[in-house]
DNA sequence: ATGACGAAATTGTTTCGA
C-alpha cells in the first residue's frame, strides 16, 4: 500500500490537483496539510465520489489537516491530547495496514516558527515538545505507527539547497534539528532516507524568484515510521510532478510504499 | 535592507507562509 503526505496550501484551490494525483498515484492514505478552510467547507463529497473516506480538522484562513483513506478511520483524534492549541495542526486515525492488521496514522502540520526571535519560534519548540511527549504513549499503544506531514524542519544540510545561506535560520536551527532528532530517538525512522536518493532532493520550493525552476528548495515534508513499518517499507520518494502544475502548491507530495510481509 | 509569490479576508491592503 501507498501512504503519502502533501501540504496543499489551500484545499479549495488545490482540490482538482489532489483528486488528479490521488487517481494517478494510486495512493491509499493521503495526509493533507494547510487546508485553509473551515470544517463545514471540507469537500467530502468529492473524495467520496473518488472512492475515499476522510477525516479532517479545519479552521478559518489558516492551518487545517485531513486524512484521506480508502478505508474509514477509527479512533479519530484531533490535536495533541493534553496540549491546548487553537490552531488545527494534527489529526490521527487507525487504519487497515494493508496486511490484515492495523496502523496508526498521524497527520501533522508543524508550526513554521517565522524567525528565531519570534514568539512563533517559542511556540514551535513547545509544540514539538508536546508532540514528543504524546508520541511516547502513542508508540506504546501502536507498534505500527506513521507520522506524516509538513515538519517545517530540514533535518540536515543535504536537505537545504544553500546550507551556508540558511545556517542558523528558522527551519534549520540547532534546536529545531534537535527536535527532529528527538523524534527519531523514540524509535522512528525517516522513510526517505531508508533508500538511496538523488542529491538536492527537496519537497518545498519558494514561489518567488523561480524557486522550483532553480531547484532552490528544502526537504521539510517527511514520513517517519516505527521499526515494524520500516521492515515493510520498500520505497519512498518525493513526487515533484505536481509542483510543475499550473497554480501549484509550493510543496510536493512525499510517499512511501509498504508491502505485506517482511 | 527590501521584496520577490500566492492565498485569504476583503475590495485596497495587510498578514502570513517557509
Q: Brief description of this entry?
A:
The chain has about 260 residues and is α+β, with helices and mostly antiparallel strands. The protein has 6 helices and 14 strands.
Give an account of the 3D structure.
With 262 residues, the protein is α+β, with helices and mostly antiparallel strands. The protein has one domain: 4-Layer Sandwich (Deoxyribonuclease I, Chain A). 24% of the residues lie in helices and 26% in strands. It has six helices and 14 strands. It has a six-stranded mixed beta sheet with strand order 3-4-2-1-14-13. A hairpin with a 5-residue loop joins strand 6 and strand 7. Helix 3 packs parallel to helix 5. The longest helix has 23 residues. The radius of gyration is 17 Å and the shape is globular. The two termini are 14 Å apart. The structure holds one DNA strand of 18 nucleotides. InterPro entries: AP_endonuc_1, Endo/exonu/phosph_ase_sf, Endo/exonuclease/phosphatase, ExoIII-like. GO terms for molecular function: double-stranded DNA 3'-5' DNA exonuclease activity; metal ion binding. Pfam families: Exo_endo_phos. Its cofactor is Mg(2+); Mn(2+). Belongs to the DNA repair enzymes AP/ExoA family.
Overview features:
alpha+beta, 262 residues, 6-stranded mixed β-sheet, 26% strand, single chain, Deoxyribonuclease I, Chain A, DNA-binding, 6 helices
Amino acid at each position: 500500500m501507498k501512504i503519502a503526505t502533501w501540504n496543499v496550501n489551500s484545499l479549495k484551490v488545490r482540490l482538482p490537483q489532489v483528486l488528479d494525483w490521488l487517481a494517478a498515484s494510486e495512493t491509499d492514505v493521503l495526509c493533507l496539510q494547510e487546508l485553509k478552510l473551515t470544517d463545514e467547507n471540507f469537500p467530502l463529497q468529492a473524495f467520496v465520489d473518488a472512492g475515499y473516506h476522510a477525516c479532517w480538522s479545519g479552521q478559518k484562513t489558516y492551518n487545517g489537516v485531513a486524512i484521506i483513506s480508502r478505508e474509514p478511520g477509527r479512533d479519530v483524534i484531533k490535536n495533541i491530547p493534553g496540549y491546548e492549541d487553537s490552531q488545527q495542526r494534527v489529526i490521527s486515525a487507525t487504519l487497515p495496514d494493508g496486511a490484515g492488521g492495523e496502523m496508526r496514522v498521524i497527520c501533522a502540520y508543524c508550526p513554521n516558527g517565522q524567525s528565531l526571535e519570534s514568539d512563533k519560534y517559542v511556540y514551535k519548540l513547545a509544540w514539538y515538545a508536546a508532540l514528543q511527549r504524546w508520541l511516547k504513549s502513542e508508540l506504546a499503544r501502536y507498534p505500527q505507527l506513521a507520522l506524516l506531514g509538513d515538519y517545517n524542519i530540514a533535518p540536515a544540510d543535504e536537505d537545504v539547497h544553500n546550507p551556508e545561506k540558511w545556517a542558523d535560520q528558522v527551519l534549520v536551527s540547532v534546536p529545531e534539528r534537535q527536535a527532529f532528532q528527538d523524534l527519531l530517538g523514540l524509535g522512528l525512522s525517516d522513510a526517505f532516507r531508508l533508500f538511496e536518493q538523488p542529491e538536492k532532493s527537496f519537497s518545498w520550493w519558494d514561489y518567488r524568484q523561480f524557486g522550483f525552476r532553480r531547484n532552490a528548495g528544502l526537504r521539510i515534508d517527511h514520513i517517519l515510521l516505527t521499526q515494524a513499518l520500516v521492515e515493510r517499507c520498500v520505497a519512498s520518494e518525493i513526487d515533484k510532478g505536481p509542483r510543475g502544475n499550473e497554480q501549484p502548491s509550493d510543496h510536493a507530495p512525499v510517499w512511501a510504499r509498504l508491502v505485506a510481509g517482511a
